[in-house]
Amino acid sequence: MPDTNSPQAPAHIRMGSSIGQPATRREGVQKATGAARFAADNHPPGMVHAVMAVSSISRGRVVSLDVAAAKAHPGVIEVITSENAPKLAQDPDAKDNPFMFRLDVLQNDRVRYANQPIAVVVADTLEAATEGAALLRPKYETEATRMGLDSADSFVPPAVGAGGPAGESPGDVEAGMAAASVRMEATYDTPAQYHNAMEPHAIVAAWDGDTLSIDTPSQGMAMAQGRIAGLFGIPPGNIHIRSPFLGGGFGSKGLVKGPQMLGIMAARLVGRPVKLVLRREQMYGPVGHRAATRQTLRMGTDGNGALTALSHHAKTATSTFDDFIEPAANASHALYASPAIATSHEAVRIDTGTPLFMRAPGEAPGSAALESAIDEMALACGMDPLAFRLKNYAETEPMSGKPFSSKALRQCYQQGAERFGWAGRPQAARQMRDDAGTLVGWGMGTAVFPALMFQGHARAVLRRDGTGLVETGAHDMGQGAWTAFAQIAADALGLDAERTEFHSGTSDLPDAGIAGGSAHTATVGAAIDGAGADVIAKLAELAMADQRSPLFGAGNAGVIARGGRLHRRDDEGRSESYADILARAGVAEIEGSGTGAADPAAQSAYAMHAHGAVFAEVKVDPDFGQVRVTRLVGAFAAGTIVNPRLVRSQYYGGMIWGVSFALHEHAVMDRRTGRPMNPNLADYHVPVNADVPSIEAILVEERDVHVNALGIKGVGEIGITGTAGAIANAVWHATGVRVRRFPITLDRLLDA
Amino acid sequence: MSLSYASPTTVNEAVALLTGATGLTKILSGGTDLLVQLRSGRVKPDIIMDTKKIPGILGIIETEAGFVIGAATPGAVIGEHAGLAAAYPGIVEAANLIGSTQVQGRASLAGNLCNASPAADSVPAMITAGAIAIVVGPNGQRAVPVEQIVIGPGRTSLARGEFILEFKLPKPAARSSGAYLRFIPRTEMDIAVVGAAVNVTLDAAGVITHARVSLGAVAPTQLLVVDGANAIIGSKLDDAALAKLDAAARAVCNPIDDKRGTIDFRIKVAGVLARRAAAIAVQRALGQAAGTKH
Amino acid sequence: MPDTNFEQPQTPAATPLAMTLHVNGRDHLMALDPRTTLLDALREHLGLTGTKVGCNHGTCGACTVHIDGRRHLACLVLAAAAQRRNIGTIEGLAGPDGALHPMQAAFVAHDALQCGYCTPGQIMSAVACVAEGHTGSDAEIREYMSGNLCRCGAYPNIVAAVREVAANAQQRS
């Protein structure tokens, strides 16, 4: 039975504070009653509906559209095609930075991928707009499609992921391989995957002159403002974005995409508010995906099972017109100690929409391959997979040689293995069956994810009535950011949670950066902590300068803020309430601000990662090869845990994505047309409730004094890493068959 | 273009709508497939005809002769009918497998059949139960064995203006029962890669005297596997009979290769599922003879 | 008092069909395009946006509502075909005083939701699951809750919430 009881806070948190408490989700009741208003739930007066028509070819141009037929349909107001679409203020193919992706917004008749928008129909009703789009009957001039990793010449990209180098190679891998007494080499394939957030991308856009008001799910409102401003030629400040709830993002809502721009364009053209919601199948093209990879791992060990060389090469695909290179090989940077490590990438250009960040970009497919390969290497050495990992445990970051800011991976291994019961595992495959004769297997994988920080800002206010306010334009896509930030805010202000007001989710608040890279809590948490410190410092100055205050003359940093009062550090009995301080000073409120960002000095001195260990049990039907995951235990160490209840949910979610990666999801692409063949939730399988077994997530205590002031690492993505590999390894252990193509479907298991 | 919605209250009214010159009329039974087809633009009807007000088209009646199941009866109602569950557990099993519980609230046997998907779960179970479809149309009423309704993927033997009003199931003989099994890659919520239904009748000694075997998703239509039935009739389902059933089931398969399963895999699964379904059916029939409930 | 339309289209697309929908105990008279699904009628015409659009295809469960007490997918029901039926949505689940339904409270307490988008559908499904008696074991709950996808992966907590509500319901009866 999964343990879903609220766990006790670990010992290292500030006792009596909000941080570390398992508070329930702030917006939980809104979400449970249907009151939470997602973007597409908005319906401003006079609003009309826009529906996109998308291309059924992947390469060529649109020759004709039956615009007259669509316009003749009752209720249709406007049909926007490349013929009549307004010219934008900026070329949507311009690219000033790696986070600026080229967009298809009806500026020409080119088709660069299947499901690319080719027209927008605006109508009074959704039904009429839908019918109007169906009446367009596009005709194309079609060119041959390039699909798959072998369909074009490959190239070495100048950068991978968010701008990292495509290859790194400390040490001499070939010498290490030559010196090895045991060697392995294997190639692993991972498929294209689509984010498939439950909430389709949506926008409600309303213009008032040159100002624009939009409701759209966004993981990065300030960046969205900048992009929209550039394209439509208005100042960013004229754009007001509301994104109080995201129905899941997983990276696909990090950047505002073409379809949302088309909603904005349509609203401007018809002079009325417009709602545009993607149909599920339209999410398989213009809003990003995770590209397929083919990864080759080579390893060598000495006679004691210590690695002498580790080489990880990844081939992947990007679009013909833009670059996002899934940095899969980089998964080998931080985990296993080896005197020589080489990672490298190559890519091909194919006729798809541009791939994008998707939950654990690079790490997810990279970890699936690396953890499978480590398992194969352990077997070749005749060692238990856990013993082999411990043998090659990295005491410093293998790629850089830097010490870790903290690393409780040993404890993760130990606690996870103990809880799972790993000790009794037979080393050979196909040794265990249950009462029904079903094959049983156990596998494990190591989880790792970098502890990143971007930049974010917050403001904090203390009011004369003794309450506080913290504001930041942060994003909650389900990870629990608002709850965690409100907890951090209460501590930052030295107030109870009930006296701390917290606002977030709109673009008029301080820029909180982007919710991604598992960095939002660390980044914005630091900003809130800083804003709180700033406003408390101002309050303390008021008090310490006032002879009537018991804190008069307490001196610099001589006070502690707690429970709505400032206390003298050297004599806690001498204290005064915030309200009294402000009242005597005759001030209604005081304000502070804070910025969260990585500390460059700490970053150059330390390697910073969250770690974990995942143990999986699978059962395999010997006749059919049907695989069921029956047990998952993950143990994770990620620094300060702001809210254990919500962090546990993040780990569960990540591990379920790992199940999905290992066994379920893959986009099937038609090599002739370049179209996804399963662009719907019936055929693109993500796990259903019955696919998900008993899961346990152990929160391993870890204190990190280097990552940031609050000691926070990220938890949103690490759960996928380790899990997919653990399941693949368990499947091997059950069956003796090593499937090196994800997902591990039954035909692959039986064919292998 | 315009589209209208009609809900006739008699068979004649419905037939008149279906044969009228106003263009394409599509029947809304449960709606689980039609609404998806409407939205994708695959069908563009002029009239959507909701049949649920026609007397007899909803509900299950148990008679001396057996059962009459209204064509639009949702799967969920079928799944909860105790009498039907005792007599034809295979049909109830299949009805419980059509999509999610929410889909079962609407999906009907007639819709599942007339959509003519080779993977429709309820059809093999209906075939092995010997179900007869009562088809109504401009020329009156006719009785058609279920296995003769579907003639190819997406195609049925129903003529213009015809629709299914109800299904008739015979009263099962003593010591008889059935089972439906399917194989799907996901644990739930998936379309059958292979489905197998078996119905058996035993004599007092436990020897199989009658059997029907049907497979789904292994050919363009659901198959009635006569050789499979013959393989087990006269046996107590010993290993030799099971092996012959397995071979007969494999022999009739003519499946497609698709992303859900390869040809070889489907053929293998068909044999194993037929065996497993037969074993369950016999066990249930024996249990019935012993007076135990299932 | 029956409600009138939330918002009338300015130029009706097809010949509108007059219909009455009985939602959360109230009659709503409306004139809708006959193609309108119950899902779009609730969301775009009655302002009841708690019911969500996930796939419009009958595969994700985000639009689960109750019709005559049973769970149904609003995207697979024509509004016209839902007349004279008792339609229940997430907005009608809490008591008139705003007191949460036990299932809503359990979802919050067990953190059985993350982004919250699938949540109304999960809760409507879960309430029906308990009423149907499909809560005999965790495995049975998982099976009968499998018509509702959750991409965030709240499944273990959803099972815990349903288990608790079912156990409490049994104690009371």
What can you tell me about this protein's structure?
- The complex is a heterotrimer of chains A (752), B (294) and C (173).
- In chain A, 24% of the residues lie in helices and 23% in strands.
- Chain A is α+β, with helices and mostly antiparallel strands and 752 residues long.
- Chain A folds into 3 domains: 39-143 and 201-277, Aldehyde Oxidoreductase, domain 3, CATH 3.90.1170.50; 293-452 and 604-751, Aldehyde oxidase/xanthine dehydrogenase, molybdopterin binding domain (Aldehyde Oxidoreductase, domain 4, 2-Layer Sandwich), CATH 3.30.365; 455-597, Aldehyde Oxidoreductase, domain 4 (2-Layer Sandwich).
- In chain A, a hairpin with a 5-residue loop joins strand 12 (293-301) and strand 13.
- Chain B is an alpha+beta fold and 294 residues long.
- Chain B folds into 2 domains: 4-49 and 57-170, Uridine Diphospho-n-acetylenolpyruvylglucosamine Reductase, domain 3 (2-Layer Sandwich), CATH 3.30.465; 178-289, Enolase-like, domain 1 (2-Layer Sandwich), CATH 3.30.390.
- Chain B has helices at 11-19, 34-40, 75-79, 82-87, 89-95, 101-104, 109-114, 122-128, 226-232, 239-252, 263-289; strands at 4-6, 25-28, 47-50, 60-62, 66-70, 132-137, 140-145, 150-152, 155-156, 163-170, 176-183, 194-202, 208-216, 223-224.
- In chain B, helix 5 packs antiparallel against helix 8.
- The longest helix of chain B has 27 residues, at 263-289.
- By secondary structure, chain C is α+β, with helices and mostly antiparallel strands.
- Chain C folds into 2 domains: 17-92, Ubiquitin-like (UB roll) (Roll), CATH 3.10.20.30; 102-172, Orthogonal Bundle (DNA polymerase, domain 1).
- Helix content of chain C is 32%, strand content 14%.
- In chain C, a hairpin with a 2-residue loop joins strand 3 (64-67) and strand 4 (70-73).
- Chains in contact: A-B, A-C, B-C.
